[in-house]
């Protein structure tokens, strides 16, 4: 399984271009105002630290205003001594960091004092990874060359510099953002402001120096906008939060490259007031409304799923916990009873409860389970097994042998052995299952053999299409549960790329179910989730670029309601808001069992 996951992850990464190739840098603005100056920014791994300095009574004092000066807060004590200590402890090795000294008093006297002080710190001025940049009050531009090599300057203009030696003394270009826009960091820049800001960034980069805005809005939206626009140093008063956010953009922004071709249902049999012959239940594990939204927005604004008209929501709490696991939720849907987390097809006292495949088999139905998880996983096993704990995988595997299933397709698992003895013909070609005449068939997905992401994503739809053909060819009513299991896995990992790809895969399977229902005209399709995973939000994105930014609040399940979509005869029964175990009772009711 580990090799399979590694192979799939490689395919995902190879298919995604997030657009964040630029190396970000963060500038801790007015750092001396932090509750722990220098060390907080240094620990956050910012690349630039700003300090305002007054030269008063032969001392380099750190403060924003003259009346804020405190005698013990000097440049040496707050910044140079800590930096010297960090070098001694080898904390600076391999890191580039700049100290920007914003001079508040006379440029020449203050800078002479700074140079004199720095000469007492040879480990700082000789370190090739450390820059001392003078900002604020500065000497005349042509005089920059008169200062030592360990001093460079902040250039606050975009006018060309023709003298090469002077240009070499420039380390950074900085301008006030408010000269170009009054944007407060909420919502988006206006088109006019965006164009003005981009133009000035491009002009500044013609100097071939890194660029920074000051007086900027300080929010995630602003940080992302500046990163996208090519600002080299992101200005912030929240160094930890900014570094954490900007450094994670490559992982949290996905650009979708594979799409689900949207199927438009006919609606000929939808909401027909008659009992359906067949039931297709589809469960997207962990597939909350935001996971669905991410796939919709990455897939040109729609999915086959979002064409449906009968929509409801289910509450997912288990019998013993506010937040369910897949076992408790799967068992509630499969048996009609709320039960404890980790329980598979058993009630709160550990007693077995009949599930849908068993009840329907007794009433003349053929039944099947398809999952992108192992067949002994919590959700699929809830439809054929009865165990008090989902961890009892050997016992769950033995329940597969005695189950009523005519079909199963899942990931390979070493816990299921000698399944042929129970009458299953194991087929290595899932595409051939649709024409099989055998009484019972099974198959394993073989991800490691898939050579492209497209091939991987098509697997569930191919299995669903052929599973439906196999069951339909038996000329009896059938029940099929199809699970897109890995939406949950990637939500646990806070991996938006994986979530979108698995959601596209699930929607392709939904397309096959809807096509079958339209052709058959007597099949009800129910699509839901067992729970939401990851506390996913999608604060930003770009639909034209199929780009989604994700923000996860947890690595675990959440207690939010999840949607139910239905299509076909009696689909209207699944509208509204209700408990997850009611799905079972609604199925039993509409089949008049």
Automatic annotation (TrEMBL):
Residues noted as binding Mg(2+) in the record, renumbered to the chain: 285, 379, 483
Residue sites binding Zn(2+) per the record: 285, 488, 492, 530-531
Top-level taxon: Bacteria
Cofactor binding mode and count: Binds 1 Mg(2+) ion.
Leader peptide range in chain numbering: 1-21
Cofactor(s), by name: Mg(2+); Zn(2+)
SUPFAM superfamilies assigned: Alkaline phosphatase-like, PLC-like phosphodiesterases
Pfam families the record matches: Alk_phosphatase, GDPD_2
Catalytic residues as annotated in Swiss-Prot or TrEMBL: 326
InterPro entries (alphabetical): AIM6_PI-PLC-like_dom, Alkaline_phosphatase, Alkaline_phosphatase_core_sf, PLC-like_Pdiesterase_TIM-brl
Keywords: Magnesium, Metal-binding, Phosphoprotein, Signal, Zinc
GO molecular function: alkaline phosphatase activity; metal ion binding; phosphoric diester hydrolase activity
GO biological process, one term: lipid metabolic process
Family: Belongs to the alkaline phosphatase family.
Name of the molecule in the record: Alkaline phosphatase
């Amino acid at each position: 399984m580990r090799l399979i996951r590694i192979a799939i992850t490689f395919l995902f990464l190879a298919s995604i271009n997030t657009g964040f190739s630029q190396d970000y840098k963060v500038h801790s603005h007015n750092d001396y105002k932090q509750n722990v100056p220098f060390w907080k920014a240094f620990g956050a791994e910012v690349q630039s630290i700003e300090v305002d300095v007054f030269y008063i009574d032969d001392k380099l004092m750190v403060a924003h205003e003259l009346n804020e000066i405190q005698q013990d807060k000097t440049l040496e004590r707050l910044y140079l001594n800590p930096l010297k200590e960090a070098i001694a402890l080898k904390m600076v090795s391999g890191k580039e960091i700049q100290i920007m000294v914003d001079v508040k008093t006379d440029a020449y006297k203050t800078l002479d004092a700074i140079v004199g002080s720095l000469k007492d710190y040879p480990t700082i001025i000789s370190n090739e990874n450390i820059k001392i940049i003078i900002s604020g009050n500065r000497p005349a531009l042509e005089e920059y060359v008169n200062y030592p090599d360990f001093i460079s300057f902040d250039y606050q203009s975009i006018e060309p510099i023709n003298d090469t030696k002077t240009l070499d003394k420039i380390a950074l270009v900085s301008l006030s953002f408010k000269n170009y826009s009054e944007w407060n960091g909420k919502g988006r820049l206006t088109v006019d402001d965006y164009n003005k800001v981009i133009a000035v960034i491009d002009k500044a980069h013609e100097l071939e120096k890194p660029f920074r805005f000051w007086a900027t809005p300080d929010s995630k939206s602003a940080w992302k906008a500046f990163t996208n626009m090519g600002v080299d140093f992101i200005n912030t008063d929240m160094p930890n939060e900014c570094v954490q956010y900007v450094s994670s953009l490559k992982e949290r922004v996905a650009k979708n490259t594979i799409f689900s071709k949207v199927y438009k249902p006919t609606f000929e049999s939808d909401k027909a007031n008659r009992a359906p012959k067949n039931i297709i239940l589809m469960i997207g594990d962990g597939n909350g409304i935001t996971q669905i939204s991410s796939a919709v927005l990455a897939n040109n604004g729609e999915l086959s799923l979002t064409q449906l008209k009968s929509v409801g929501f289910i509450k997912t709490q288990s019998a013993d916990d506010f937040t369910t696991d897949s076992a408790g939720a799967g068992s509630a849907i499969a048996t009609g009873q709320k039960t404890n987390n980790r329980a598979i097809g058993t009630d709160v006292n550990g007693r077995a409860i009949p599930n849908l495949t068993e009840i329907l088999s007794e009433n003349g139905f053929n039944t099947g389970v398809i999952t992108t998880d192992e067949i002994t996983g919590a959700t699929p096993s809830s439809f054929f097994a009865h165990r008090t704990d989902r961890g009892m995988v050997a016992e769950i595997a033995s329940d597969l042998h005695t189950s009523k299933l005519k079909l199963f397709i899942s990931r390979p698992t070493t816990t299921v052995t000698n399944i042929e003895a129970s009458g299953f013909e194991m087929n290595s070609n899932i595409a051939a299952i649709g024409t099989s005449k055998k009484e019972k068939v099974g198959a394993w997905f073989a991800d490691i053999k898939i050579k492209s992401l497209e091939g991987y994503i098509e697997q569930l739809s191919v299995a669903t299409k052929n599973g439906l053909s196999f069951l339909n060819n038996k000329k009896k009513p059938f029940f099929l549960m199809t699970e897109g299991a890995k939406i949950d896995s990637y939500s646990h990992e806070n991996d938006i790329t994986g979530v979108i790809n698995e959601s596209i895969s699930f929607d392709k399977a939904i397309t096959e179910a809807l096509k079958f229902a339209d052709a058959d005209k007597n099949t009800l399709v129910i699509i839901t989730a067992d729970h939401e995973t990851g506390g996913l939000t999608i604060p930003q994105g770009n639909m034209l670029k199929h780009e989604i930014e994700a923000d996860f609040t947890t690595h675990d399940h959440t207690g939010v309601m999840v949607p139910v979509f239905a299509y076909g005869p009696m689909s209207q029964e699944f509208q509204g808001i209700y408990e997850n175990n009611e799905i079972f009772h609604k199925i039993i009711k509409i089949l008049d069992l």
